[in-house]
Amino acid sequence: MTTQASAPPTTKSQALRSYDVADFPALTGLEEEWRFTPLKRLRGLTGDGSGSPRGTVRHEHDDLPEGVTVDRIASDDPRVGSVLTPFDRVSALAHGEADGALLVQVARDAVVATPVRLRAVGEDAGAPAFGHTFVEVGRFAEVTVVLEHVGSATLADNVEVTVADGAKLTLVTVADWADDAVQAQHLKVKLGRDAKVVHVQVSLGGDLVRQHTTVEYTQRGGEAELYGLYFADSGQHLEHRQLVDHTVPDCRSNVGYRGALQGDDAHTVWVGDVLIRAEATGTDTYEINRNLLLSDGARADSVPNLEIETGEIAGAGHASATGRFDDEQLFYLMARGIPEGEARRLVVRGFFAEMINKIPVEELRERLGDAIEARLTKAGA
């Protein structure tokens, strides 16, 4: 089923969207959306999905708080595909090949004090796996949902999120894969009137992780805060893309991503797209990406983009910065008797502190801080 014609797009709003993988041509790496991605390392996630063995990714969850349910639904459930229409070949392949979807429901008016913790556990990176998750937050509900990805997998998955009128969702996604894992994920959030989402995206593990997040506003008053932190080690490719699509008046968005890189061929990509359509008057938006290079041989690509179709906005801006350690910070710490290695670790911890503190789960904050510390210690920083 194709929902939009396949003419060459001139803006993000005109890109091809289809549930059928056959509507998307085979990838060559020359496409603008894929020019940073090493396609050969995606293994079987760019093919037609037919006739090949399947890998396994299973889901686990902690005890569920009152007002929250987790179930499986069939692929033909009307909710599947109601938020996210695939806009590239990998997402369309995942849509067609996933065996049903994991459904996470938060009841209307439920104020859930305990975080909902879910894990996707990969068991085999040797064969492609396909997944689908649907998160449904009822009207006026408030909840924190944590989705962690661990183990070995070659996974293409779609995540659909609806946040109903007046609801508030904090969504934390963590890619803490084993070293051999590959993931290409599309996540889309649809916001109702006066709804709010805070999404914190963490990428540490995996050989290649490519995550694309989209926000769509359906009525006035929607708010989206998208934060991310990533740390690429030798040989890792971590790629994050966002599209914040302002389609209605008087909505807000704020995007802030921070990354660190160390080691030969460590590569990160951040592409932040904000589209303000002609009817989206009163929009207030800002996006920023900062990258810290900890060694030679690492590369960070950072591309902020704004498409503005109306002059009647409250504000719009973007910024990007990539650099090495601040020598003044190091000098300040070392002048007070702190050894250089420890001083460097303190600077990196401070660099990430703002993003880590966005996570409202203390145990997870501490674990991520320890993981970053271990990576720095391993490298001798």
UniProtKB/TrEMBL annotation:
Residues 189-243 form the FHA domain. It comes from the Bacteria. Transmembrane segments: none annotated. Residues 42-64 are annotated as: Disordered. One of its GO terms (biological process) is iron-sulfur cluster assembly. InterPro entries: Fe-S_cluster_assembly_SufBD, FHA_dom, SUF_FeS_clus_asmbl_SufBD_core, SUF_FeS_clus_asmbl_SufBD_sf, SUF_FeS_clus_asmbl_SufD. Belongs to the iron-sulfur cluster assembly SufBD family. This is Fe-S cluster assembly protein SufD. It comes from Micromonospora robiginosa.
